[in-house]
Amino acid sequence: xxxxxxxxxxxxxxxxxxxxxxxxxxxxxxxxxxxxxxxxxxxxxxxxxxxxxxxxxxxxxxxxxxxxxxxxxxxxxxxxxxxxxxxxxxxxxxxxxxxxxxxxxxxxxxxxxxxxxxxxxxxxxxxxxxxxxxxx
Length: 136
Prior knowledge:
By secondary structure, this protein is α+β, with helices and mostly antiparallel strands. The chain has helices spanning 8-14, 17-25, and strands at 44-47, 53-56, 60-61, 69-70, 79-84, 91-96, 102-107, 117-120, 125-128.
């Protein structure tokens, strides 16, 4: 359950069409097209909707999937995992625990130490290049 909610008109005005489609309508950007899929800059990845710190560059890895991938979140309560039955599959949907924005999906094929791959949409995040610790 999210802590905050936003007015739909305000979100449509503030977010790009792609950011809105991804975060509010559980859309997916095309592989190898997002801003961060091949980004190697240091910093903290934040929710584009509510600015919650989600991931750090220290946990980002090359998955070959075409989307930014992380093996862990900045904390245990920042990303909520839900069961997604769309597209004839059962997957783990990752949403921002603070505002319910759709971020992407989690898969059990990531590297150690977690074995998880948080496969995120660039459109759902912004990289704060000045922050490395995940603090708000």
